[in-house]
Specification:
alpha+beta, two-stranded parallel ribbon, 4 helices
Length: 207
């Protein structure tokens, strides 16, 4: 009987030792801070990447919008210096304007329109579309009335006096770095300028 009691006590002591060691190991693991930084970094890394990509997207988007404005103004300035233009010449001007978007992978879509404001006695001035040319990918309104109204649109302050205007429309689709979660952004710039060296610019007629 005494021998059995000694064996039982020995086994109980061994088990108590295992429990104490296990408890000690758990407490030691809980106090160990060596892996906390790695875990925190792993949790914060996706957030940091999103913030960085978001800041980069805003910067690239602002730069792209400025370039679209420059495309419209440069194309208008080049055309305003002409007395007459041929379709092939306008295509070349469109290509020159597209170089301003480099290193972007896509070129802007451009439309140039020559609009006349003619005085009509005792009535509001008449706005007429003289000629227009655009790039192949230029997006028109699907609504016929909206499309026709836009073809002859001029701001009210430009309708007050008889005058001729070159209107340049530049369209560009900005693709964000986070395109998986953010949609493409459509950008458009409209620029107006008057002919520099003549009242009118003839279209499709060589000098």
């Amino acid at each position: 009987m005494m021998g059995y009691f000694c064996k039982f006590s020995s086994r109980l002591s061994e088990r108590s030792g295992v429990i104490r060691k296990t408890h000690s190991a758990v407490k030691s693991f809980a106090r160990d801070q060596r892996g906390v930084s790695a875990v925190e970094f792993a949790l914060l890394l996706p957030v940091m990447i999103l913030i960085y990509a978001g800041v980069a997207d805003v910067s690239r988007g602002v730069d792209a919008n400025r370039k679209v404005s420059r495309v419209a103004s440069m194309v208008g300035d080049l055309i305003s210096r002409q007395i007459s233009v041929m379709p092939a010449q306008l295509d070349d001007v469109f290509k020159i304007g597209a170089t301003l978007m480099i290193p972007s992978g896509t070129a802007p879509e451009i439309r140039v329109s020559f609009i006349k404001v003619e005085a009509v006695q005792n009535r509001p001035n008449l706005v007429k579309l003289d000629w227009s040319q655009k790039t192949a990918g230029f997006k028109e309104s699907s609504n016929r009335v909206d499309r026709e109204n836009k073809q002859t649109y001029l701001p009210e302050n430009l309708r007050q006096e008889p005058m001729n205007y070159i209107r340049v429309e530049a369209q560009y689709t900005y693709k964000p770095l986070l395109s998986a979660v953010l949609p493409d952004i459509a950008m458009e710039e409209i620029y107006y300028i008057s002919p520099r060296y003549s009242d009118s610019i003839r279209y499709g007629i060589s000098k």
